[in-house]
Design a protein that fits this description.
202 residues; alpha/beta; two-stranded antiparallel ribbon; 6 helices; 7 strands; globular
């Protein structure tokens, strides 16, 4: 803006938010699961921020490797499916999508797999983030549709495994390394998320 203010959702505001979180490196942030919190099941802001950043570069790399984006700096829309339980992985994956400039589509792991696959196909999701312990069935089905890359995370949103084709795998990891080397984050998505609801709640 002419007055020097920063538009909400700009790259500068994203960086400022992340910097604010890092100023509290030793503070405890989100619970890692829905049990009563203790030191074993919490994350510092520094770890939470780092896990979200690691996931963000993979989301961006997956977008390019799958052909949805023509480069890491592309302004095209990138859709990311989230099939996650209510652990720290859910809000941190949402943060990761924001950092990656991607729109996220949340899906309840309790839904029938056919519903999740249909939603992610309709949304044209290029990448899906799923819980590592519950992903075996849904990942295979989702990967048969629009998704070309699945990233499996633990309850702290640490990346455990990347599932993709043998053809795309080296490209994903090469682009991930390239994305890690850049400074700052990508422009915020025009649409933060796409929410599918039932007819009674929509």
């Amino acid at each position: 803006h002419a007055d020097g203010s920063t538009p909400v959702g700009s790259r500068s505001s994203t960086t400022e938010t992340s910097a604010h979180a890092l100023r509290a490196k030793t503070a405890l942030s989100v619970d890692a699961n829905d049990k009563q919190a203790d030191n074993k099941h919490t994350l510092s802001f520094a770890v939470a921020h780092g896990n979200a950043t690691d996931l963000a570069v993979l989301i961006r790399a997956a977008g390019v490797a799958s052909g949805v984006l023509d480069s890491l700096e592309s302004e095209s829309q990138l859709i990311c499916g989230l099939v996650l339980k209510r652990t720290a992985a859910l809000p941190l994956s949402q943060l990761a999508a924001f950092k990656a400039g991607a729109t996220f589509v949340p899906c309840d792991p309790a839904w029938p797999s056919e519903r999740t696959v249909s939603i992610l196909d309709e949304a044209n999701a290029a990448v899906v983030i799923a819980d590592v312990g519950d992903a075996d069935g849904i990942v295979d089905q989702v990967m048969a549709g629009s998704c070309r890359v699945a990233v499996l995370v633990d309850e702290r949103c640490a990346v455990v495994k990347v599932v993709t084709s043998q053809l795309l795998e080296p490209k994903v990891f090469s682009l991930r390394d390239e994305a890690k080397a850049r400074t700052g984050f990508w422009n915020s998505p025009e649409i933060m998320y796409i929410m599918y609801t039932s007819g009674s709640t929509g």
